[in-house]
Amino acid sequence: MSSYGTTRHAPSPAGAASNKERVTDYHTTLFRRLTWEGTVPLEIRVDPKELPANSDRGLECYYIQAPRVSYLPLLMPEIRRFLMDVVFDDAAAKVLKEDDWWFESAEGTLLKWHWPIGLIYDNHTISTSVRPSSSQLQTTPSPMRLILHLASPPTEKLLQSPSAEACKLSFMGQLKEADFLRWGSTKRMTALRQADQDGLWEGIRDHNFDHYWRVASKVTPTAGAARPQSPVPSATASLHTRPPSADPAGQPERDGAYNVRSVPVRIYLPDGPVLQDLVPPLLEDGSPNTLAHFLTTHIPLLFPPQPHPPNSTHRHPNNSASHGSELAYALIQGVRSPPEAEMAWLGACMAGADGWLNVCIGICS
Amino acid sequence: MAHTTTTSPDPHTRTLPWGASQPSENFAEAIKALDTYKQRDPSKVIVRFKAVGNAPIMKQNFYKITSSNRFQAVIQFLRKELGWQAGEPLFTYVNLAFSPAPDDTVSNLFKSFATDGHLIVNYSTTAAWG
Fold first, then answer.
1. What is the distance in angstroms between the CA of the first residue and the CA of the last residue of chain A?
2. What part of A 325-344 touches B (C-beta under 8 Å)?
3. Are A259 and A293 in contact, with CB atoms under 8 Å apart?
4. Mutate to test the interface with A, among B45, B66, B98 (most CBs of A within 10 A)
5. What's the whole-number mean pLDDT along residues A114-135?
6. Is the Cβ pair B105, A274 closer than 8 Å?
7. Looking at the partner chain, which of A133, A176, A302 has a beta carbon nearest the beta carbon of B11?
8. Interface of A with B in 173-212 (CB under 8 A)
9. Sign of CA dihedral B67, A71, A106, A133
10. CA–CA distance from B87 to each of A32, A205, B79, B84, B90 (Å)?
């Protein structure tokens, strides 16, 4: 048996793909489920300067464990109910307009309505990593502190209205952009019936894995099947990473993650910018594009080229590039990800519900 | 009294006995690298506007736009060129296929979606591929 593999090892030596067709293999479902069930702790506090008169102070803080794949507008009904029931009095509740509400991080970063909550959280984590005095000694995960403002939203910076409807439109746009990157057209997305398209969003709103994936599996590539047709040239490297028994012999699957034109990926650096480019699943020599190769290609100053193939699991004893001298790390869905992870696999199993693989770069202290 | 703050060293340079909060050389190098990546790309790319449906046609279709601009800036530019009033609906798409996020940069979109050296932006007065 393979260990908790993050590469696309089939669970059985025979290879799951040859006899299962479109049935999603065990590992793919497992990691999609783990991604889907991921939650982050949030502390939501109304800006004390904006609390209406007669508010019940001391209760103006709300804690929530929010799904990573969800969005702030989808949390609003719950937050609103709490504030109206417990904190504000009737007079204030009448005057307050939810359309004017907006969020900042405790550090003063504007939080965008259309970013997945997991991305907001990870982006906050990496921003914290560049401030050496703060929180490096933290041992337990602590809630991200959000400030809820009740008036004067900076509309031109938020870019989107706080409505769930605007958020849904933006989400569909992201799904289509991801579809276009993978296949060169949005045929898969536009072929979905309206009810199915709505079903994707309802799956997120209700945090229902089966509901979402019933539709999403029609547009997301399969992870387990495809295999580069040409043999990997470097024999020593390939011996370490891919036991021959794990490779199904057949043709690469048409909808396979290793057959897409480009994996939809964005790199988030602490306090910006966001980088996006074409990310082929396979390199020119036919070997899989790994996270290490991807990072070295796009941000070499933070991930300098390694003296030997980065996808080799064997570390030379004299290699100075040991764990301690790394400059930065990659956070995907809150998990520090191993450099040998393959981009195609990550795109199929660790992407958010909008189809995008968000790679947040933190700085090692 | 103020004696605690005057004698306490700056938290940024404070050295713990186990050396945990000492910013390393690596950390400084990484921060320098981040500063490099934060620099705005001054280069420009060609954006080609194409009207869809009954949207008005522009006098000029090709524009050079600074690639570090956000897509939001492209939308605002387009609205201005068309003389669109605030609140008048205008829908924008790339490659007749999808609406990009307004905070994505022109540079990112160009790298991923350029056709024949142009980023094609379609605009419509009604939702077309939303």
1. 36
2. 325-328
3. no
4. B98
5. 88
6. yes
7. A133
8. 173-174, 176-177, 179-181, 185-186, 190
9. negative
10. 40, 28, 11, 8, 9
Give the tokens for residue A174.
Answer: 């992201």
- The answer to whether A181 contacts B130, with C-beta atoms less than 8 Å apart, is no
Residue A129's identity, in one-letter code, is S
Domains of chain A: 39-158 (3.10.20.620), 181-307+316-363 (3.10.20.90)
| Distance from chain centroid for Cα B93 | 16
Best mutation target, A176, A274, A323, A360, to test chain B (most B CBs within 10 A): A176
How far lies A115's CA from each of A72, A122, A160, in Å? Answer: 8, 11, 11
User: How does pLDDT run across A228-238, given as a tens digit for each residue?
Assistant: 444 444 444 44
Torsion of CA A328, A331, A332, A338, to 10 degrees: 60
Give the tens place of pLDDT for each residue, A274-286: 999 999 999 999 9
pLDDT digits (tens, 9 = 90+) for A80-100: 999 888 888 888 888 888 888
ipTM of the complex: 0.82
Strand A144-149, strand A39-46: pairing: parallel
Q: Three-class SS of residue A327? A: coil
- For residue A143, which of A64, A240, A227 has the smallest C-alpha distance? A64
